[in-house]
Design goal:
The chain is mainly α. The chain has one domain. The chain has six helices and no strands. The protein is elongated. The two termini are 34 Å apart. Keywords: Membrane, Transmembrane, Transmembrane helix.
């Protein structure tokens, strides 16, 4: 992330130094924002009589997206659009939290010369966030266009959802691997003869 954020921080005149305390605060903000988004999603389901939002499903086919938008009803579509007012900020919170955690773990990771590409790992949460925002734009466009159909939007929404969850899964997997690497290094360091 530092290599990704370096040009931005230079333009703004900032020196980014992420610490464990920052990651803890970012984690709390992430959890609070996740709870707010889950509550807002529940409000949509309550308004629709149980039809849930599409953003929480991993593999939405274009047909399923169409069926869900129809099943939402007029009040549900309005509630879903209001949901996006809250969901707009959620990708930002998880992207900052996950990428910051990766930066901290990478700082302590002894991977050697062959693993320089790991420095790109903190970009994964940002890729997920971009696809999350694309998903929000396409689904909200479909909600606004209803009852008119535009098949490319259904395909784009389906692709964005799959890409978002794939990038999130890779990011979380990266965090687990980096955390495992960090813990193994700590254990080996404490067992090493002094």
């Amino acid at each position: 992330m530092m290599t990704i954020m370096r040009p931005i921080s230079r333009m703004l005149g900032l020196r980014l130094k992420i610490t464990g305390f920052h990651v803890l605060i970012l984690g709390l903000i992430f959890v609070v924002s996740m709870l707010i988004v889950r509550h807002a999603a529940g409000q949509v389901a309550e308004t629709t009589g149980g039809v849930s939002i599409l953003d929480l499903n991993i593999g939405n086919s274009p047909g399923f997206i169409r069926e869900t938008i129809v099943a939402l009803g007029e009040n549900g579509r309005v509630a879903y659009l209001r949901f996006y007012l809250v969901d707009t900020f959620y990708p930002l919170t998880y992207a900052i939290f996950y990428s910051s955690w990766m930066v901290i773990l990478l700082r302590h990771c002894r991977t050697g010369h062959n693993f320089r590409h790991l420095k790109a790992l903190p970009a994964l949460p940002w890729i997920a966030a971009v696809f999350d925002w694309l998903e929000n734009i396409t689904i909200s466009s479909l909600l606004l266009l209803f009852p008119r159909d535009w098949q490319p939007l259904y395909v784009a929404a389906s692709f964005a959802t799959i890409a978002k969850f794939s990038a999130i899964a890779l990011a979380v997997g990266g965090i687990v691997i980096l955390l495992g690497n960090y813990l193994v290094q700590k254990i080996m360091h404490h067992r090493a003869p002094r």
